[in-house]
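Question: does this match?
>
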Amino acid sequence: MNYFVLKGRAALEALDNVQPVDTPECPFDWRFVVECTSCGEEPYRAIVINLFAKFQVENSERTWNFRASCEYCPSTHLALIRRTKGAFREDCEDEWVDLLHIIADGIKFKKFREKKSIWHGTSEFGSKTYENINLEYSSWCDYDMDYYQLICMDNARFQIVLAEDIYEKMFKARDGVVHQVAMLSKKLRI
């Protein structure tokens, strides 16, 4: 199993607390370019995962958010995702924010595709909420007519990192059974 973290950063102007619109009625589609860990091939299309999809797998205690077979070999790909409390903030332009924790079996996550993703955020001037922030081109702008101010999110960037520090501490053996370390569960909020 591999453990990944999706991180993001962006420049915000008069906008704060930007995060995905992700509800059971309107689930956020997390799109990723992945690679099979068995054969090393990438699927033709990006995979789509949402938090509300649930799959049971034989011989697994977990309920997974994604399950598929490799197009090129008999390997099965599984993924479990968890949102963090991270959000893009105006005062954190130079910092990478943890957006998503990923546990993957049989696949390596390589790139996040923000195409067709809808985010929401709040104006720094008041309680106005912007519900349709589209990051398809890594930028979004609107104009606040009440405050005569341009509202922008620019240069949105994402990266997926292998969480080696978590990976090394993930499992410990006790009485011949593998148990999850409580620290990791707390960190990943699983």
Observations:
- The CA atoms of residues 77 and 106 lie 5 Å apart.
- The radius of gyration is 18 Å.
- Helices lie at 164-169, 182-188.
